[in-house]
Amino acid sequence: MVNRLFSWLNDPLGRIGVLIAFLTLFSGAAFGLYQTQTAPEQPLEFPHGLHVGLNVQCLYCHPGAYRQASAGLPTETKCWGCHQQLSAVQTEEQWQARPELVKLRNYVMNNEPIPWVPVAQVPDFVHFNHRPHIAAGLNCENCHGNMSDPKFTVAQNPQVLNMGWCLECHRTRTEDNTQNNPNGDPAVSATLNEKRIKLLDCGTCHY
Amino acid sequence: MTTELKISEISANFAEGEQGKWGMAIDMDICTGCQACVAACAMENNVPFVGEADSGYGRSMHWIRTERFWEGEFPEIKMTPYQPVLCQQCGHAPCEPVCPAFATVHSQAEALNLQVYNRCVGTRYCANNCPYQVRSFNWRDYERPEPLPNQLNPDVTVRRRGVMEKCTFCIQRIHRAEDVAKSEGREVADGEFAPACAQACPADAIVFGRIDDPESAVSKMARGARGFHLLEELGTLPAVTYLKGG
Fold first, then answer.
1. Got the DSSP string for A141-167?
2. Which end of chain B is less crowded, N or C, counting CB atoms within 10 A of the terminal residue's CB?
């Protein structure tokens, strides 16, 4: 009975059919996976590398990171604060040579917000807060990668922002070892232990 | 020779949960049963409205409810005082050891019972094991008609179908208060913040604070002679103290 049910597998056409079905499923899955790992298209191709290279501080455009949960994405008026200087010195031809800035000018002139697509996002059941991370002395590039790299136009995550990666850092930074507590001070040990309990607690991020 | 353990001995094995951190005192003598706490809790914590049909099946969702019972036989009945019942945040919680997915865990940092929504697989074992019946299960993805989605609290997860949920003592407010206090380099002051139910209570019958601090308002209330715990004989070590009989 079972032999007769699968007898079409002995047929070469049947085997090719199985192969095609497998390849379709596999490539579909691979494409889906690829889609989750590529940066989304942004309304304008913002050159992060150029701006960081010109020594613009991260916190100038993303000031929320310093004092609240969300770092925030800059509005068109913040961009225009610097870029309106250009309108004083540039001719229309010079504008047209830089299409991304024309897009920015259009947003400002039409008084429309720039619909930025957030890239570094966590799911709804995770509550991330930037402030304690900045207060703990972390730099933006520790998590978001080196944005001064000229190849960075649109923000891309240097790593997958998942829980194992978060906990890895929380563990290593609160471990009571010679690096975190070089003198073996019991007071430092107690603080580290208290921090460790807090930083490895489910309720710190999930609620 | 039997190895039967008495409740007090079991509690001794779980000594770490004995001293809670956050606690609540509810004065049943001044509670008017106005349900403001129920409404405030649903607003703060994105608790969905299940509608009439599901409510009829006993699937209504509340993180806090006001209870009252009949005392005596039918014609000569007397109403007991109103009693708001919420998760008691037990130090020795019956819901925790039964979860097969470790979705209901005890927070060591805040001494609360947590419900980790992304771990929950919906066995509902915890709710069946809860002696206070305070857990509610998302039987469906309950619809929020426009413009209700605009009032969702962004600090709280919107739960999906198939997960258990319960009172968190407004842990988002605890975290916010701790974050603000830390950024200003101080400790959280007593009464600086309150969960939604305590904030909304017009009679101030619900008091919230640190129970590990003997000087806090909630500790002082809980120490009084009127205080008792719900189903105290179970040895669940609740963090909520009720006051009655003044």
1. HHHH--TTSTT-SS---SS---HHHHH
2. N
